[in-house]
Amino acid sequence: MVHLTEEDPNFSDPEDYIDDITDNELLDDVLRRKPKEIDGIDSVIVVDNVPIVEDDRLEKLRNVLTKKFAKIGNIVNQHYPMENGKTKGYIFVEYENREQATSAINEFNNYRLDKQHIFLVNHLSDLDKYASVPDEWEPPEPQPFKDTGNLYDFLMDKDCLDQFSVIYEAGRQTAVYWNSHGKPKLLEERFNWTETEIRWSPSGSYLATFHPKGVALWGGTNFKQIQKFPHEGVQLIDFSPCERYLSTYCPIAENKSKDEPQDIIIWDILTGKRRRGFLCDNATVWPVFKWSYDGRYFARIRDDLLQVYETPSFGLVDKKSIRIKGIRDFNWSPTDNIISYWTPEEENTPARVVLMEIPSKQQLCTKNLFTVADCKMYWQKSGDYLCVKVDRYKGRKIEGKEVKYSAIYHNLNVFRIREKQVPIDTVEVKENIKAFAWEPVGTKFSFIHGEAPRINVSFYNVKKAGSVELMKMFEKKSANLIFWSPQGQFVVLAGLKQMNGILEFIDTSDMTIMSQVEHFMATDVEWDPTGRYVTSSVSYWSHKVDNAFWIWNFQGKLLQKSPLDRFCQFFWRPRPKCLLSDKALKDIKKNMKKYHSKFKLIDIQREEQVSSEQIEKRKKAMQEWTNFCKQTEAKLQKDYQRRRDLRKGFDTDERSDDVEFEEETVEFLVKVEEIVLDEDDE
Amino acid sequence: MKPLLLHGHERSITQIKYNREGDLLFSSAKDQQPNVWFSLNGERLGSFNGHTGAVWCIDVDWETSKFMSGAADNSWRLWDCQTGKQLEILETKSAVRTCGFSFSGNLVFYSNDQAMNQTCELSIYDLRDSNQIQFNKPFLRIPMPESKITSAIWGPYDEFIVTGHDDGTISQWNIADGAIINTEKAHTKPINDLQSSKDSSLLISASKDLTAKLYDLSSLDLLKTYKTDRPVNSASISPCKPHVVLGGGQEARDVTTTSTRVGKFDAKFYHLVFEEEFGRVKGHFGPINSVAFHPDGSGYSSGGEDGYVRVHQFDDSYEDITFEC
């Protein structure tokens, strides 16, 4: 029972009270939701370039357009301004909200109604913005030049050493080291340099770090910050091969409400300016936009369209997407503006692999294929060859939406890009192909096939005469990945993760296994950009103990083990493309002997220097130690009597210099013998 | 170097110790019987029967007349070395983790583990006063409420005790008044073992934090650090050469996740002064829990999680190991 004896408190203000709290302070959250005038305007779009019609056909136009625009959302209101009995050529459409208006703009801007009428669609609110553009163009203020220093500073090292980056302590520490002859030398170390991981740009000029607010690029002598790209929640990035542009991807939905698409943004690295944003619902296959080798074009697939954009305008090539029915995947050639793509079988048309030149869109070569389940395209890094791995089937079953294939076998179709008419060679493989890799420079390719425990690795050579020849098949290997040296010839077969980290170093010039080693539980393997060193590493991200990276030479000789606490990620810093001509390179190879002796000398000198440094260090340590020992010795001498007293007067020190050996003679009887002398002898 | 394999224990070895002359080797394990062996041929001399729990620690006095052991059966026992008879027993409130004879052999200490209602304590007795053992009245008892003792040894001259703790600190305790003399945050993880050099001037600590460190035993000044890639369970200083040996390996519970082939269970030899590794001895198929140099420096022994004690006699080539300096 409640006692009502207490008086109800009085909540009213006293009479002289003056309210000094503004509504904003009190009700900010409520007020923010208060309808504003702008809301209504924002959901209105203006459609320009609508056909001009007279009264009698207005109804028909209205029907056509309403049908189109209603696809986006509910049309609240629409208005067709009239003048002299004709429409004015533009209309207003009002949607329920701003989001619908925005997507209508995305959908219908530049929409081609018929030959003469291409819609231009804008927000009504934007009209003011465009109207207020001053008639006179004012040149922008020149910005002061920001000197970023020499971005190629890392190439100026006297010994031409390479750099690499490591992340450790579960991501908190990031460091860049010099690989000084297999023994890493610290160059730069920073705490919390990045939130997640780091990336190098394709030529090694920039180091990209990830932060909640966006991406930062670092470079130059001391890794100064060079550029920032604000993109909240960024998860993935991709550099253009020319290092001019950077695309960033953020999957977080709240960005979608803004007018400008924010899912993928492409930035200009030099200016830091945003060049264009794109919508993207699905970035499971990253990069969504693939760049051509020179950064002139980038492209993606959307439904049945291949969208090829050009730089620096960032518009579609020829202002339109290329319609390719069923297009499944595409790749750029690493050295030419050629796109390879494939389309699956459809009713009566066969599956097809096509090489198309950009921007002419001329088809250089098409290959028709039958009974195709899937295709994978592998460009050789020099752009000389393209290998298309075709998964073919003998049987097919359709269960609901899923298509099930049986008795899959593989064809490897090798396109010789540099030869006339692009001839194609085919290799048939009965077993399941687990990994494929081209020799980056050269004519060989290799792949891993078969099922455990019978996993084999085959090496093929693409011969000039028009045949593809099996060079060697290694049987029963523990390998799931192939790593070719960037210079070709040498290859590492790696059985990573579940295969315990078996590494095999093979020289493909004569197909010898140079060494067979193990880095237990290794998760990653990477060649250095010069093809002289290989690192294997166990990353904390996939394995919790024994985190380390090991450096091998190209022959599989272990040079250095570097255990690091909760080591996560290792990357070699890439180098820009070699500027020497083919002839110059050939000359160097020819005169190798001359260089060899020179470098050998340097190597010997360095080794001597290292060992003399070490000896110097040891000398110092020994000196200190001897001094320390002298002191303790003196102390021990002083306390000699004390020790003796504690041990009943015995000397138990037993130090070699004061142990005196006394010679003791012990006599004992060995035996007694009695010999009777013959008396006759006397 | 072909070691003698001592298989007298059924469970993992916890501690091994030579007597002063080095002719005998004492060993304890998680089974209940400490053993004593002839170090020359590996023949077992006898065992000390009585404990009813895992034996964590052992020690022998300088005359090899008395032997002590502490176990998880909440008891500390004193034995006659010659006959193997139990002379004394002290009931404790929790498992006995460390124990030791002083330089003179007159004083003994043991420490007990932190348990539910029991703090870790260091208890010190004088054997000359028979009442102290008989009525379990140590002349000094030092409680360790902060971090439990994981290993401990006597300093020289019966003056102080050095303790290594679960939190990685090393402390010196004056046994005259129980006051702390020195304390040093030596490691970031528990200290598994402390051993002194033969002349009691140096102290080596072995820690789970992958390092072993060398200290001046009386001043606790850090002298050297030996880095490895494994938790270090035990470390020992050679009595005649500037060498140390480190034993360890992945923790027992993680062992199944690592491969023995990779050589994680090697005993590692370091140069005492240069801190450089110069040799490894493999053989155990589990982590090494205890290592000890032979008192004349001619060999060393190791006891492992695998239950074996391996007694090694160095090859002649050991004498030839030199460092250019």
How many strands in all of chain B? 28
CATH class of chain B: Mainly Beta
Give the C-level CATH assignment of the domain at 433-586 in chain A. Answer: Mainly Beta
Radius of gyration of chain B: 18 Å
Helical coverage of chain A, percent range:
10-25%
Secondary-structure element pattern of chain B, one letter each:
EEEEEEEEEEEEHEEEEEEEEEEEEEEEE
Largest interface: A-B, 28 and 29 residues
Largest sheet of chain B: 4 strands, antiparallel
Which sequence of strands runs across the widest sheet of chain B? Answer: 1-28-27-26
CATH superfamily of the domain at 433-586 in chain A: YVTN repeat-like/Quinoprotein amine dehydrogenase
Largest sheet: number of strands, sense, barrel closure of chain A: 5 strands, antiparallel
Structure summary, number of beta strands of chain A: 45
Q: From the coordinates shown, what is the CATH architecture of chain B?
A: 7 Propeller
In the predicted model, the low-confidence regions of chain A spanning at least 5 consecutive residues are: none
Given the structure, what is the number of helices of chain B?
1
- The residue-averaged pLDDT of chain B reads 89
Outline of chain A, from the CA principal axes? extended
